[in-house]
Specification:
With 72 residues, the chain is of the alpha+beta class. It has one domain (2-71). Helix content is 44%, strand content 12%. Strands 1-2 form a two-stranded antiparallel sheet. A hairpin with a 2-residue loop joins strand 1 (42-45) and strand 2 (48-52). The longest helix is centred in the last third of the chain and has 14 residues, at 58-71. The protein starts with a helix and ends with a helix.
């Protein structure tokens, strides 16, 4: 999943701040629970769990990021 975000176009990457949590650490497990995620991969945008158990297509992910950016 992290790779999907890393290859987003630069103009989209300029709109986002990426945080990765390692599930082998207490911090990662705590964040996973905080989001109420049930499986990996999971993606949260603005603190909302948006994608779980799937890796969205690049176009879908870009549209969701743009939509949320416009709403801010």
């Amino acid at each position: 999943m992290a790779e999907s975000v890393k290859v987003l176009p630069e103009e989209i990457q300029d709109l986002i701040e990426v945080h990765e949590w390692d599930m082998r650490t207490r911090e990662g497990v705590d964040r996973f629970r905080e989001l109420k995620a049930k499986s990996l991969p999971s993606v949260a945008l603005d603190g909302d769990l948006v994608y779980e158990s799937i890796i969205p297509g690049q176009e879908e992910l870009i549209e969701e990021i743009k939509r949320r950016y416009r709403e801010k």
